[in-house]
Specification:
By secondary structure, the chain is mainly alpha-helical. It has 7 helices and 3 strands, in the order ββααααβααα.
Amino acid sequence: MAFGKAPFRSTRAGVQVNLDDQEREILVHLLGQLHDLLDDGRSDEEVDPLEALVGMRAPADGGPPAPPDDPAVARLLPDGNRDDPEAASEYRRLTEYGLRSRKREGARTAAAALNRPAPVVLTAPEALSLLKAFTDVRLVLGERLELKTDEDAESLHERLWAGEEPESWLATASIYEVLTAWQEHLVTAVSKQR
């Protein structure tokens, strides 16, 4: 990002991306990881046409969908009801496929836009896709960093600067902090487009 420039800026043409090539490359890589993380391992050919039409899909074994094993994916695809396992299973059956598909498509849309040659100007749908994908990537990173409460998130900056955590934690926390700042700038730019 050029010194002094906001990472995202509202223009008449759309939302201008002021990230440098390397920053965009990192962001595209993170969006690709998000896309892959949300892959349920089933090809689109395995989807019943009616299921695809209504945005739902039963698991390959035909049973009720199970909550994700990965806590980060569970943050992205939460239970609809924590107190009633049967209701949660039904909610997951009705919503999970569509939610996975929308999140994956949003990550693909944002990554494709960011991969265009500079200067990159996002259309309104591309900017909204990136905004949603930022939230999803930050949820995944937050889970990996064990940020469970507002206090955990607030102490992240202090822990980052103390430098007492393992290198892998510090790298993930640094990315989380940068994405948080970029997302705030993108929110501002998008809000000026309306």
